[in-house]
């Protein structure tokens, strides 16, 4: 049986991290949470992450900066940015940089699932 796709969730808000992780598990996906971008970058989950969900505004490195750093390091992980503080300029920069989705909190489960399907190439369970 193929291994489930790992979804990594990076958000400084513990309640958002845990709620998103619970949703991923209810969908049959494997999820790992991180309180900040630096924790994710230093983890052993980096190479097996198939989709990254990251908050735009966090102390230290932002979600968009995390995405850019991954790209600069040659690590391309389909990324969904989430934010409670929508900004059209940040949205445009994120989507132009290659981010899969930019969702505004609170977002619907259906919208997030559609973004994850896009990130995983249409299969929420991965190959």
Describe the structure.
This protein is 39% helix and 20% strand. It is of the alpha/beta class and 127 residues long. Strands 2-1-3-4-5 form a 5-stranded parallel β-sheet, with helices on both faces. The mean pLDDT is 92.
Keyword list:
alpha/beta, Rossmann fold, 5-stranded parallel beta sheet
- How much beta, percentage-wise? 15-25%
Q: What's the rounded overall pLDDT mean?
A: 92
Which architecture name does CATH use?
A: 3-Layer(aba) Sandwich
Q: Please mark out the parts with pLDDT under 50 across 5 or more consecutive residues, or reply none.
A: none
* Total count of helical runs of at least 4 residues: 5
Oligomeric state of shown chains: single chain
Strand order of the largest sheet: 2-1-3-4-5
Q: What general form does the structure show?
A: globular
State the total count of DSSP E strands: 5
Give, in order, the helices and strands: EHEHEHEHEH
List the helices and strands and how they pair.
Blueprint: E1 6-10, H1 14-26, E2 30-34, H2 37-41, E3 49-55, H3 63-72, E4 79-83, H4 88-97, E5 101-104, H5 109-119
Parallel strand pairs: 1-2, 1-3, 3-4, 4-5
What would a concise description of this structure say?
The chain is 39% helix and 20% strand. It contains 5 helices and 5 strands, in the order βαβαβαβαβα.
């Amino acid at each position: 049986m193929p291994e489930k796709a790992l979804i990594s969730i990076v958000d400084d808000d513990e309640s958002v991290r845990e709620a998103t992780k619970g949703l991923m598990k209810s969908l049959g996906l494997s999820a790992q949470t991180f309180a900040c971008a630096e924790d994710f970058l230093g983890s052993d989950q980096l190479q097996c992450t198939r989709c990254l969900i990251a908050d735009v505004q966090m102390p230290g490195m932002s979600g968009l900066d995390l995405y850019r750093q991954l790209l600069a390091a040659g690590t391309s992980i389909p990324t969904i940015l989430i934010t409670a503080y929508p900004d059209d300029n940040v949205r445009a920069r994120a989507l132009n940089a290659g981010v899969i989705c930019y969702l505004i909190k609170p977002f619907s489960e259906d919208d997030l699932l559609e973004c994850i399907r896009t990130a995983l190439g249409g299969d929420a369970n991965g190959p």
